[in-house]
Write a structure and sequence with these properties.
Blueprint lengths: L1 H9 L3 H11 L4 H16 L1 H11 L10 H16 L5 H15 L4 H23 L1
Helix pairs in contact: 1-5, 2-3, 3-5, 4-5, 5-6, 5-7, 6-7
């Protein structure tokens, strides 16, 4: 989350910035491997993720979403859509916990609401596909 949050400010190439991030923030190999997978996925699918998030915002424009909350939403939505071993409810719960720690006072409720709408929309789409 911290890397994607910082990247939102700098607009740097994520590939070149990632090595510097790991030098400043050493992590266990398993954590680093998973984080790199998520970072690569979020950066590769950024437009798709942001469009989906924008569609789930009620009475908000995407530019009003704080950078911390935006990074959290991107990560959780990526996990919900592309990481098979992370159930959507787990991704949402983790996102809410991160929002409690790093976001504003309203961030956990906001993140939960947006991700719940995205989860329900995906379930509706899956029901329509069958």
């Amino acid at each position: 989350m911290q890397f994607l949050f910082g990247l939102d400010f700098t607009q740097a190439d994520w590939r070149s910035a990632l090595n510097a991030f790991w030098q400043a923030n050493p992590s266990r190999p398993g954590v680093k491997k998973y984080a790199q997978r998520v970072i690569q996925g979020v950066c590769s699918d950024l437009e798709e993720l942001d469009n989906a998030i924008a569609g789930a915002l009620h009475h908000w424009s995407p530019d009003r979403v704080a950078r911390v909350e935006r990074a959290i939403l991107r990560i959780a939505l990526y996990e919900m859509r592309h990481v098979a071993d992370v159930p959507p409810n787990v991704a949402i719960n983790e996102a809410v916990e991160i929002a409690k720690r790093y976001g504003s006072d309203d961030a956990p409720r906001f993140v939960n609401g947006v991700l719940d709408r995205l989860k329900n929309a995906a379930a509706t789409e899956n029901d329509n596909d069958t």
